[in-house]
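Structure in, sequence out. Go:
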């Protein structure tokens, strides 16, 4: 039930399965753990050693087979916070290293949910006004919506202004996105919706495909163009569409 969660928190598949099994059993011997998880007995010992190193499992010494007991799940939060602190301590130097080489004009492609998160990080990093053509509220897609509050909070902190030209259908079929974008939005005319969108911020133009109302498809990807002149050209074209669009 929680194996995928534990893996997302950094445990291997076997570590996740054995930790979940111990949570269910309370305590157990190696043979019992092996039977419940179908992990080879010899491998169980190795996995238990790693879990003990992480502080997620501890042995109960007694006669006969040793038994093992799980630590409280709150330990997982402690692990996450320790990693976050470690990253925070080193982030300034990592950012300095990232910016040490001048970024030339380039084109690259982001894929799927993790690509979308990178795109949102780009927006925060640049901290420039953002303009959205044919916006569809995809920030609330189920695969990235847990990342959205963090993004939204940081965007508000940096006072990044947004200007949205939404697809017409957002007004009637997905209005919940509107509370996140302030009041600076308009809608494209009915009949001009398409399975793509264009976002512009700083020196970046993001051309999105396979995007739909409230989310994006499995094959979602978008092309990122890093070029100041192209970005400025799209901003000019955005203003033309904005001036022609109907007010909300």
């Amino acid at each position: 039930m929680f194996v995928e969660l534990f893996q997302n928190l950094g445990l291997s598949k076997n570590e996740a399965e054995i930790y979940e099994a111990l949570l269910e059993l309370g305590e157990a011997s190696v043979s019992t753990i092996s039977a419940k998880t179908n992990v080879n007995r010899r491998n169980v010992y190795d996995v238990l050693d790693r879990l003990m190193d992480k502080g997620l499992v501890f042995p109960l010494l007694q006669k006969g087979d040793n038994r093992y007991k799980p630590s409280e799940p709150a330990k997982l939060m402690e692990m996450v916070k320790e990693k976050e602190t470690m990253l925070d301590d080193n982030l300034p130097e990592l950012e300095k290293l990232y910016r040490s080489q001048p970024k030339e004009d380039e084109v690259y492609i982001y894929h799927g949910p993790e690509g979308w998160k990178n795109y949102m990080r780009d927006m925060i990093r640049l901290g420039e006004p953002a303009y959205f053509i044919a916006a569809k509220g995809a920030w609330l897609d189920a695969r990235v919506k847990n990342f959205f509050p963090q993004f939204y909070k940081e965007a508000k902190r940096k006072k990044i202004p947004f200007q949205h030209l939404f697809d017409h259908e957002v007004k009637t079929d997905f209005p919940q996105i509107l509370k996140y974008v302030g009041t600076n939005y308009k809608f494209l005319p009915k009949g001009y919706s398409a399975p793509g969108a264009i976002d512009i911020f700083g020196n970046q133009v993001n051309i999105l495909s396979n995007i739909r109302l409230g989310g994006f498809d499995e094959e979602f990807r978008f092309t990122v163009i890093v070029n100041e002149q192209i970005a400025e050209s799209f901003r000019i074209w955005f203003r033309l569409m904005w001036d022609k669009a109907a007010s909300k």
